[in-house]
From TrEMBL:
Keywords, ordered alphabetically: Methyltransferase, S-adenosyl-L-methionine, Transferase
GO process annotations (BP): methylation
PROSITE patterns recorded: SAM_MT_RNA_M5U, TRAM, TRMA_2
Annotated catalytic residues: 399
Name of protein: Class I SAM-dependent RNA methyltransferase
TRAM domain span: 11-68
Family designation: Belongs to the class I-like SAM-binding methyltransferase superfamily. RNA M5U methyltransferase family.
Lineage: Bacteria, Bacillati, Actinomycetota, Actinomycetes, Micrococcales
GO MF: methyltransferase activity
Binding site for S-adenosyl-L-methionine: 260, 296, 320, 372
Length: 442
């Protein structure tokens, strides 16, 4: 099918083919280019390339969106896509979603993630990055986003222990959504999934009446498939308990509950939080008997990490809105006599704490808050409540760099200093990554 060329000076139209010099990376896994002064966010490109791209959205005056159809000048970091179903060989509409960096060398993916993090921290958090002694900034950035163990050896494949597939309501075909749309794309492989998921994935099947297919392959349990039927909220088997192993420690988790998707991610984050707490202990800033909190605590992974650093006398309360996850946290933290697992919304619980008597408020002021909110971040409301409680330290685990950067601004304006920042590439071949920021009350 031929697409119209856009003549110089003409407004961009959906479907037009244009050539773009790609200059940078934006949040959300798309690159940045300019066409006649207008910003164009372009998918499936790499900064530094010249590409041919098809305009997919031109509604806004300030920017347009496009998707690469061919590469004119390729980056040296361009690789064959790790997933044929998402490659440039396919028409953009038929490319599978969920591996939007799969055409980029792993090392460069991490570099791009570092750029996104530092740019967000600078623009929204007011934090500027400087080169470490004797290095230039590019070298410092190259080391900022850490690889998960084993990924360099496997080219970042076979890591996902959780995958959600969808069912086409018309045909019943099973597959991931297409990139940039909710159209189901049948595929014959899931290269990011681990062996347990590959074993049970119903690829090529038809499942009329089903809406979602969640594939779960726990580290210490049999893989399983949770079916969400059309019109039903609950998924069969979602509340079954499964066993996960983090290094040699067992965790009980609901099959349908939150658990990090990369096989190494729970250990990576457990270790990172444990190390952050150990450093606070070394600096004499951590009080194990204070009112320590693990907010958005899930099944208690990060409270357990705090305890690993602080010892079994740690006092900590996990706050989590999902009742079943709280039950798991209570079980997973049972050996800690000072641990309490609460089912509550974080904002509501913090509002209660702000009304607590002075002695309780004093314990909270001496405490450390670990928080690991969903993608939207804690937000101004919860961040404001935390600064009003004024704990000695805040350890913030974030899966969205812009949300982290915005909350960083609030924290820094309220008397907290950012004393540590790490990032982890626990979603190879996607634009996602996890950050850990440590803030200390000045
Ligand atoms: C990113 S997960 C972190 C879970 C846990 N820290 C871990 O590492 O496994 C976020 C958790 O926050 C919970 N959650 C989402 N919104 C919440 C809210 N407003 N209040 C309390 N918990 C919430 C979710 O159920 C989920 O378990």
């Amino acid at each position: 099918m031929a697409f119209p060329e856009t003549p110089a000076g003409a407004p961009l139209e959906v479907g037009a083919e244009i050539e773009l010099d790609v200059t940078g990376i934006a949040h959300g896994g798309v690159s940045v280019a300019r066409h006649e002064g207008r910003v164009v966010f372009v998918a499936d490109a790499i900064p530094g390339e010249r590409v041919r791209a098809r305009v997919t959205d031109a509604k806004k005056k300030s920017f347009a969106r496009a998707v690469t159809t061919a590469v004119v000048d390729a980056s040296e970091d361009r690789r064959d896509h790790v997933w044929d179903a998402a490659s440039l060989e396919r028409d953009p509409e038929n490319r599978a979603g969920g591996a939007e960096f799969g055409h980029i060398a792993l090392e460069r993916q991490r570099m791009l993630k570092a750029e996104v993090l530092t740019d967000a921290m600078s623009r929204f958090g007011g934090v500027e990055f400087a080169a470490e002694d004797g290095e230039d900034l590019a070298e410092t950035l190259a080391e900022l986003v850490e690889a998960a163990p084993g990924d360099d050896e496997t080219n970042g494949l076979g890591y996902r222990s959780r995958v959600r597939l969808h069912v086409d309501p018309e045909t019943g075909a099973v597959g991931p959504y297409a990139a940039r749309s909710r159209r189901v794309i049948p595929v014959d492989s899931l290269p990011l999934a681990n062996a347990g998921i590959a074993q049970i994935a119903p690829l090529g099947d038809f499942m009329p009446g089903v809406a979602t297919v969640d594939l779960v392959a726990p580290s210490a349990d049999d893989p399983r498939m949770l079916l969400g039927m059309v019109g039903e909220k609950t998924r069969a088997g979602a509340s079954d308990a499964v066993q996960e192993l983090v290094e040699d420690r067992g965790f009980l988790v609901r099959a349908g509950g939150f658990w990090q998707v990369h096989r190494e991610a729970p250990a990576v984050l457990f270790t990172a939080v444990r190390d952050a707490i150990s450093e606070l202990i070394e600096d004499g800033r951590f009080d194990p008997a204070a009112g320590n909190l693990d907010l958005y605590g899930g099944a208690g992974l990060l409270a357990a990490a705090m305890a690993e650093a602080a010892g079994p006398s740690l006092k900590v309360t996990t706050v989590e809105s999902d009742e079943a996850a709280t039950d798991d946290a209570a079980e997973n933290l049972a050996e800690l006599v000072g641990a309490l697992a609460l089912t509550a919304r974080v904002d509501r619980h913090l509002a209660e704490l702000l009304k607590a008597p002075a002695s309780v408020r004093d314990r909270l002021r001496r405490g450390t808050v670990v928080l690991d909110p969903p993608r939207s971040g804690a937000g101004g409301g919860v961040t404001g409540q935390i600064t009003e409680l004024a704990p000695a330290n805040i350890v913030y685990v974030a899966c969205d760099p812009v949300a982290l950067a915005r909350d960083t601004k609030t924290l820094r304006e309220s008397g907290y200093e950012l004393t540590g920042l790490r990032a982890f590439d626990i979603f190879p071949h996607t634009h996602h990554f996890e950050s850990l920021a440590v803030f200390e009350r000045e």
